[in-house]
């Protein structure tokens, strides 16, 4: 039942830890976040994903404090190349910055080695070969075991893989974000690279209707076109039909979203995030949902790049992303 992630075997559903410290408004209290991490471990989750950016180090420190005593029980992934400077997000893929970032991450995470180190974003001002070369040096130094990339194109993956074997590529993938299907999934399979799907429940869209007006002022979804009022109203009609399918299949909408991803290939590992233990347990229930090829095709036709209204990022953010995109 485990899935292959380079030299590792991991649970089919991992845990994205970002929203315990970052991105969707006020994070949970530290004791609540700690309880969720430990409950995930108890339920068999053995793949945890964080980043230097999340909470500007707070997320890594949280994982270090809570999970360091259990370090041998899970695969630990973090990211470099994007971090906080004076309260602002900065993309910096220079070798010296990568090396300094990883030294800080090791301290925050209270570990001697990072299992999977991703380049969080490609820095267009630095050749990808230089960034990955610095990361490869950290493998040689014994501080990192394997390398990954986040939000990059198939062409960038191939260039990076020529410098050092890439274990995993992470990008957004769900029913409403199908960009990996353009070229990246094929490139991953050609090269033997695992695919890690973040935001697999579409930033909450595939869970339940939301009041977008009630989003916290710091919620990153406020800047995302699909959550703008008119677009969201149109997309909500898709959700109502989708929820009907989930009812028919005997699962929750979130479980259906994850089951769809799991059915897309055994090389795909979704990493949903949550601040709720109840939602964590619900997400893991997706492992009991098996979809036929016909059911997958039915979902493909219902929610896809042609039926969803709005791009996934606004124009300024999109300029930072090195991925194939469908025409707006």
TrEMBL record:
Keywords: Oxidoreductase. One of its GO terms (molecular function) is oxidoreductase activity. It comes from the Bacteria. It holds the Pfam family Aldo_ket_red. This is Aldo/keto reductase. GO terms for cellular component: cytoplasm. InterPro entries: Aldo-Keto_reductase, NAD(P)_OxRdtase_dom_sf, NADP_OxRdtase_dom. Residues 12-303 form the NADP-dependent oxidoreductase domain.
């Amino acid at each position: 039942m485990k899935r292959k992630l380079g030299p590792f075997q991991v649970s089919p559903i991992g845990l994205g830890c970002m929203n315990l410290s970052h991105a969707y408004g006020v994070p949970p209290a530290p004791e609540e976040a700690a309880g969720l991490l430990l409950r995930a471990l108890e339920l068999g989750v053995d793949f945890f994903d964080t980043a230097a950016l999340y909470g500007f180090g707070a997320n890594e420190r949280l994982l270090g404090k809570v999970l360091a005593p259990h370090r041998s029980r899970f695969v630990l992934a973090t990211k470099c190349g994007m971090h906080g400077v004076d309260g602002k997000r900065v993309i910096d893929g220079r070798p010296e910055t990568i090396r300094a970032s990883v030294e800080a991450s090791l301290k925050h995470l209270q570990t001697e080695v990072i299992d999977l180190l991703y380049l969080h974003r490609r820095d267009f001002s630095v050749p990808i070969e230089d960034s990955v070369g610095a990361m490869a040096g950290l493998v040689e130094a014994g501080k990192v075991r394997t390398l990954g990339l986040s939000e990059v194109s198939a062409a960038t993956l191939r260039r990076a893989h020529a410098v050092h074997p890439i274990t995993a590529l992470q990008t957004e993938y769900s029913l409403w974000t199908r960009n990996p299907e353009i070229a990246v999934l094929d490139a991953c399979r050609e090269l033997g690279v695992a695919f890690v799907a973040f935001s697999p429940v579409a930033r909450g869209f595939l869970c339940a209707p939301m009041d977008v007006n009630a989003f916290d002022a710091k919620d990153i979804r406020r800047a995302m076109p699909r959550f703008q009022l008119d677009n969201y109203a149109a997309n909500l009609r898709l959700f109502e039909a989708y929820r009907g399918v989930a009812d028919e299949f005997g699962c929750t909408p979130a479980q259906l979203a994850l089951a769809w991803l799991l059915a897309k290939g055994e090389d795909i590992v979704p990493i949903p995030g949550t601040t709720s233990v109840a939602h964590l347990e619900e997400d893991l229930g997706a492992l009991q949902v098996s979809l036929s090829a016909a059911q997958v095709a039915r979902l493909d036709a219902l929610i896809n790049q042609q039926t969803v209204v709005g791009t996934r990022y606004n124009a300024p953010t999109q300029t930072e992303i090195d991925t194939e995109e469908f025409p707006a």
